[in-house]
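ingest -> validate -> predict -> emit
validate: passed (alphabet ok, no gaps, 257 aa)
predict: started
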Amino acid sequence: MFLIRKTSPSDGATALRRALRDAGVSAGFTEKSSFNRPHLILNWGGEDDPIARQSRILNNQSSRRVAMNKISAFTVLEAAGVAIPKFFTTADEAASFRAGLRASTNPIILARRTATGQGGEGITVVRMGEDIPRGNQLYTQYIRKTAEYRVHVINGRAVAVQQKRARDGEEMNPDQRLIRNFDNGWVFCTESVDAHADAAREIAIRAARALTLDVAAVDIIRDREGTMFVLEANTKPGLESPTVLSAYVEALVPLHP
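emit:
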C-alpha cells in the first residue's frame, strides 16, 4: 500500500492520494508510527519517520528538516556547489555586503523573519537607502530574474517542470512584483515553459541529490546573465496541475512494492 504521512491538512497530499487511487493504487493517509508489513511511505512535510523495516520511506526526517530550514538548506547546497543567492544570518553581515555593491546593481535585501517560512511569509523588502531591520533569522540578496521555475524531482529524475507567470490582468505593487507568490498574483504553469527548462532540470536534480530528498519540488530562478539559482526545495508542494499529478503517479507507481 502507498501511505502518505502528514502533520496538517494538505491539498497537495489529498490530490496525490486521489490521483494514485484513480490509477488503481491502494493509497491512503496514516498517522501510525510503526509498520510490520511492506509499504511505500511518503513523508509529507514534518512528520517523524516511522519504524518500518520492510518498507521504503521516501523523504526521511533528517533530510526534510534540512530542506525545510532555508539556512541549513542553503548551507548544504552551497557546499555541494549548487548556485544559491547570497545569504546572511545577521543584519550587520547583510549591510556590509550591500555596502560593497554599486547602486546601479539595485542591491535589494530580503529580510526574512523566519528561516522556515513558506510562500513569502514574513519577508520584508529592503531597498537601497533603507535600514536593514535587525532581529530577522535570515537575510538574502534579491536577484533580478528573467524567469522562475519549479522542477519536480522524484527518485533522482526530473518528472515535470513548471514556469511561474503572473495571472492575467493582475495589478501589482513593486513588492508584489518582487515576491512572486500566489497571494501576490503569481502561479506556476506547465504550458509554454521556455527553452531553459533543461538547465533547470539539471540543477534541480543536483539540488535534490545534495539534500538527499527522494521527492522534491525545487524552486529555481534564472538571472539576466542566464545563471540558475536554487531558492528552496519543497517537500509538501501544491499539486493543482493535472499534468504534474500524472507525472507523480507515473514516477511513484513503479516504486510501489
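The chain has a mean pLDDT of 88.
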